Amino acid sequence: MSQAKPRLELSRAAAGGCVKVSFSEIEVTFRKAALGAGTPLGLAEDFGRVNYWLATRKIGSLSVGLAALNAFDTEDSGSVATVESEPEWNLSPQSGQKLSALYAGSSACDLLCAQHAAIHLRKVDVPLLVLVSAVLASSEYSLAIQIELLSADGTTEVVFCDCGMVRADAAVLERFTVASALDMRLLRTSSGQLRNYPVAFPAKAPDEVFTEGATVDETEWNRIEQYAKRMLVPASETSRTGAGAGEIDCD
Q: Where are the domains of the chain?
């Protein structure tokens, strides 16, 4: 019997029409959007891959990545401001800000891959993006990663990433869709300890997803394209003068 797919439904950014785009276009446009919002190239590339993963699993439409872009652009969220290594690595934002998932996911996974045992992230704005960053890192480096979502009431929700698979109960995954200032903890663990946890998402998306393509909210897509267009240089006499082949071009 096939396992029921976890229902991860996020509120849509707008109730507009829909447009059809390819998954590769989603990845490239989110990468450009992150660059347009002011993130470094490496983080922008990671952001594109994260949103490609979400799109091929049909999770959250485009609203997850767009929420992170909006929070970073309005300075409601920012990059890592404080790094402490005792008793475990802690990454914290500036005072008055949340920690942007644009920075938090890649930074935490880089530290884990550098053999650090546990990383604590303070006030993460979009926890789901950090989770997907861990999924991709577990696939690329054949790791088993435990992600804990720490609530103010002391409860802990746990998801496991095992070589590109997501292992968790559907009810637990729902908690990672909350866009708020939440604390998270990432730890390296052993794959042998995860066998009793159900596979919520396999390492590879089903083939039929790529046949269907991606149907996305038009208003959300236009907003992401607006971020991407910030990379473009406005037309001017100076830009036109520098365009085209140089004087030494012989082709």
A: 18-203+215-229
